[in-house]
Every structure is written in C-alpha cells, then in structure tokens.
Design a protein that fits this description.
- The protein is α/β, with parallel strands linked by helices.
- It folds into three domains: 5-115, 3-Layer(aba) Sandwich (Rossmann fold), CATH 3.40.50; 129-184; 185-393, Orthogonal Bundle (Hypothetical protein af1432), CATH 1.10.3210.10.
- It has 16 helices and five strands.
- It has helices at 13-26, 39-51, 70-80, 95-105, 117-154, 158-181, 190-204, 209-220, 231-234, 242-248, 251-259, 269-273, 295-310, 321-330, 338-348, 351-360, and strands spanning 5-9, 32-36, 56-62, 85-90, 109-112.
- Helix 3 (70-80) links the parallel strand 3 and strand 4 (85-90).
- Helix 7 packs across helix 13 (295-310).
- The longest helix has 38 residues, at 117-154.
- 33% of the residues are buried.
Length: 393
C-alpha cells in the first residue's frame, strides 16, 4: 500500500529543514513528509504523487516565496487537488491576505511565523484527525447508500424493507457515536457501557423487550450532540471554564436536533434531549421534574452517572461499586428517579447483575493524566452525583 504524504514548501532552507523535522516527529507512522524550495517544485511533486496514486494529506506553504507566492500556490492546489488540507504560513500577516487565501484557496489554517513548536503539534494532529473523521463519515454514509440500494432491489416486502432501513440508520448513527468517543482513551466505550446498564435498569423495571431495546439505543446515542464540539473542550484535562461548560451543556438539545428529522428516531429524541434533567427539577435543558421527565431519560441519567463514577477519568480513578451504590441511594429523589435507583441496585446486588457488571467493565485503564487542579476537580459532564468525592478519588 502506498505511503500517504505531506508537502512543505518554503524557500528558506533553515526554516524548511526545521519545520520538516518538527512535523515528521509528530506525524503518524508511515506518513512521508516531503519538501520543496518553490511553488513550481512543489507542484511537480504533487503531480508525481498523484500519478503514483498516493494520498496527499496536507500541503503547507510559506507566503513570501520568490515567484509564485504561497497563497497563489495553495489556490492552484485547491483547484487541482480537491480535498487536500492546506496551511499558509506568513512572515508579514495581514487581514486582507488571510481573507483572500481563505476565500480563494479553501484554506484550513492561516498562521503567522515563527510557528510555535507546540502549535505545530496541535495544528497538524488536529487537521489529520479531522480528515480521518471526515473519511470515516463519508465511508459510513457511502455504506448506508449501498445498503439502501440493496434493500430497495432485494426486498419485496415493504414492511421488511422499512424495518431493515431503520436498523441501518440506527447502526450508522451508533457508529458515529462510537467514533466520537474513540478520539479519547478515557471516554472510549462509555456509551456502550451506559447502554448495557440502561438495559439492565429497564429490564429490572419490568419494561417490555421492545421498550428495553429503545432505552438501550437512547443510551448509546445520548452524547451524539457532542459530535460537533471542539476536541480541546471534550478532551481538556483541567477544569472547564464557565463558557466551555455552557457549551458542553448544549449537547442534549443538539443531539435531539440531529435526530429529530429522521422518523426512525421519533421514540428516541425526548430521552436524549432530557437525559441531564434532575428528578428534583434542577437539571437541564427544561428543568423538568419527577415523572415529567421521560422514563428513558431518567434511566439513562442514572446509567450515565454510574459509569461516570466507576470509570477512570483524567482527574481521578474509578470509584468502588459499593461507594457508587451509596451515592445513587443518597441522591435518590434529588438527582435520580427513586424507582430507577431501586431497580438498578437490586440488579447490581444480585449474582446475575454482578456477572453483567463484570462483563461490562472496561479494560485496565491507563494512568490518569496529571493536572494542576488538585482534588475535588469537577467532571466535564454533569452525570456524576452532585456531591464532594472523597479525597483520593
């Protein structure tokens, strides 16, 4: 398989070699970083890569080059090599220059020089991750289109075709939710565990199997509204600012808005929108209280909090099962629905429930990342019970 490539174009040899070294150090294994001294040489390299059917991930150019300047060069790249990421570096940055490059070259980043080493790492990593997620989304949507075509031509039974199509939509969105969590090792598998806990609660409440399945799907998709949020907020190891916390708190409504236009999710929307409501009416976004909160949302709220407490996070290790049970019982009637707490504790304290819990446990977690915040650090989400965690957690 051909190696993907990245191109750096800079007429200054010392700057070019220094940047190449920094970029190569943070690139994924297998990525080749190529360099050129001019726009003309850079175009020759790009055409050669295309002839070799190699993937071109990113082109970085210096604005003040002799001959064709960097902005004009990236404008040509934008026209000839669709989908390639583009960064323009400028030693004499100006607003007019930036606006022109963004409008005409489809620029991803406009950066004044000198380019800080830490910013090099963050920018390159973020752009490559965005491209990876975009390709994954395109593949998922392409697979969905193929699946729809197969269903249309192969199934004569309209009801069966409708049922399979709904399942395909659900699987696609669930895949997007899982892909969202995979960006951070601390949240990977979170929604899948919440879904398993939610199904346990729903079955313990005596809900019919069809409703249990919907509750599990609501749990799996409860954080889908975070898919458009910035990685620097979702994966921030320290406390969030008030503005960042308010941005995070929009995700239930955003998730509901994403799914509302699709009839398949008509039974899921309210549960996703209200999974951060509190039983005493102090939650969000609607400050609903008691049984005014949809049952699926009450279940997911409890399952989400249980996973938040028992999983290792950047600011503390996971809490013991006994402590989590005590906290859920303490917050029963305040944060959590009492019926849901009673049903979940009943399952967790049973032999069968213990087996289910063990099967759901994540792999041994990595060592938590150090922060400067100390003990009592708040979670990025509001799933955890509103109590002061013991010192050392």
């Amino acid at each position: 398989m051909s190696r993907p490539a990245m191109l750096l174009v800079d007429h200054d040899e010392a700057s070019r070699l220094q940047l190449k070294e920094r970029i190569a150090a943070i690139c994924p294994p297998g990525m080749e970083v190529l360099v050129a001294r001019s726009a003309e040489e850079g175009l020759g390299i790009l055409y050669s890569l295309r002839e070799q059917h190699r993937t071109i991930e990113l082109v970085i150019a210096m604005q003040g080059m002799p001959g064709i300047p960097g902005g004009r060069f990236l404008e040509i790249v934008n026209a000839q090599f669709a989908g390639v990421g583009k960064i323009l570096l400028s030693g004499k940055p100006s607003l007019d220059e930036a606006i022109y490059a963004i409008n005409n070259a489809g620029l991803d980043k406009y950066i004044p020089t000198p380019w800080d080493p830490e910013d090099v790492k963050f920018t390159i990593t973020a752009l490559l991750r965005q491209r990876e997620m975009k390709l994954l989304n395109e593949k998922l949507l392409s697979d969905l289109q193929v699946r729809n075509q197969q269903l249309t031509s192969a199934l004569g039974n309209l009801e069966q075709a409708r049922h399979d199509l709904e399942g395909s939509y659900i699987q696609t969105v669930e895949s997007l939710a899982i892909a969202l969590e995979a960006k951070d090792r601390y949240t990977a598998g979170h929604s899948q565990r919440v879904a398993k806990f939610a199904r346990l609660i729903a079955r313990s409440l005596g809900m019919p199997q069809g409703e249990v399945d919907i509750v599990g799907q609501v749990a799996l998709l409860h954080d889908i509204g975070k898919i458009g949020m910035l990685d620097k907020i979702l994966n921030k190891p320290a406390n969030l600012t008030p503005e960042e916390r308010e941005a995070i708190k929009t995700h239930p409504v955003v998730g509901a808005q994403i799914l509302a236009p699709v009839a398949t999710f008509s039974k899921h929307v309210e549960g996703i929108k209200h999974h951060h409501e509190m039983f005493d009416g102090t939650g969000y976004p609607g400050r609903l209280k008691g049984t005014d909160i949809p049952l699926s949302a009450r279940i997911v709220c409890l399952a989400d909090a249980f996973d938040a407490m028992t999983s290792t996070r950047p600011y503390r290790v996971g809490l013991p099962l006994e402590f989590a049970i005590q906290e859920m019982q303490k917050m029963s009637g305040r944060q959590f629905c009492p019926d849901c707490v009673e049903a979940f504790v009943r399952v967790l304290q049973s032999t069968a429930g213990a087996g289910e819990l063990a099967a759901s446990a994540p792999a041994a977690p990595p060592v938590p990342r150090a922060t400067d915040e100390g003990e009592g650090q708040a979670s990025h989400d509001d799933a955890e019970p509103r109590v002061q965690l013991p010192t050392g957690t």
